[in-house]
Amino acid sequence: MSCSHIRTTDRKYPLRQPADWIVKFPRYMLELPEDVNEVSITYIGLQPRHEESLARASHTDLHRHVTTAAQRHLAAKIDNWIGRASTSLAPALWEKLYVETGYDVPDTEMYILYWADKDVARRAIRDLDIKKLHNSLPSQDQQNIGIWHESFKVPKSRLETVYSGNDYQPGIASLPGAKQVSHAFTGYWGAARDRIPSSADDSFEPEASLPPPDFAKDIKRRDICGSNNTSMIHIRSGQYWERCEENEREAYERTLEPVLREGMAYLENNAAETGDCGLRFSRNLTTNRLLQDEENAKEFYSAVVDSAVDVRYGSDTTSAGASSTIETSNTGHGQDPNIIPNPQRPRRETCSSGFFRSLKDLENWAAKHPTHHKIFHGAHAHSTKFGKTTFKMRTWHEVAALKPGEVQFEYVNCQPWTGLLGFVEI
């Protein structure tokens, strides 16, 4: 996935890069080790269903993250599975986030797991068994939570990445042996397609059309499993501003982040036209990148098993990485004793992740719509203001071009607008 993997001659489909192109802003792409041929990625979500008719959130509605007792109970099991129960199947890296808005319920807790071995990834998800996890809850509580997973594998020839700096390694960039290298395939419309090695011979056109989104399906208490019957695009696009000085942090939060949320809201509200298939906007909680120190990891997994007693489950846990800071008081959430706020300052790291109907749909929004133009030019203006080589805010994305059957999903007792549910026949 380095520049050497991008064919510049003898292509069926020519590069989109203009002649004599000069890069205006330094950018980096991922170079995976030679022995890594593909990457497997799984998203797992724990969705609160304490409200039967929950209104969908707006991209401007910010609130303190809360979790239910059922979420904490299942999160403890997943944390334990990642850390101890299945060490031979454990992901090479993982991240934990919560959904703020998009095609899910706000406060859904979400894991993103990465493997460099597809067979290990497949066995791991089978070993975790989310339906069995759901059934482990007391029967009266199973209706109050949904659990889902979306999994896919992609060869590195159909994977592209871009990073605004090489001093921050999110997502796939944290795989052992991965390197972020500078390149010239950036800054022009069509650059993302050029960065996909297979674009030399593949236009990535879908084999069939997806149905219009249907968010009125009756799937209460149902277990929906399936796979994609046509090619799709997956994108994860992130923002990281923990290292910013106060003036740069304020500039991002007041100027650039509102523009980003406006673009996500447009995609969500116009799914049939834009090709948005289940994008979620989420905020990071923790990752094994933050737990590399042996003592921190030991402390974390000890907290998973030995956390404070929960009134319903007896031996429960809180959100990963935050168990020592959870309060037991209520703050405006209906005085439900099973919903506990996290008093920590929200981490300054967010991402959008989900699927698009096609690469052409994603490109059309990027190249033609005012909402993306504001994001694109706003990011360039930000890095210019704070120095092309000295600004601290980091943006990035990873895009996977997926063939039929490469996406596997399962939704147990989930709201009908969750992820891909509204876009597949059931």
Automatic annotation (TrEMBL):
GO MF annotations, alphabetized: lyase activity; metal ion binding
The answer to keyword Heme applying to this record is: yes
Record Pfam families? Dehydratase_hem
Q: Compositional bias (Low complexity) spans? A: 316-325
Which superkingdom heads the taxonomic lineage of this protein's source?
A: Eukaryota
Cofactor(s) for this UniProt protein: heme b
Annotated region Disordered: the residues are: 316-347
In its UniProt entry, what is this protein called? Phenylacetaldoxime dehydratase
Q: What is the organism of origin for this protein?
A: Zasmidium cellare ATCC 36951
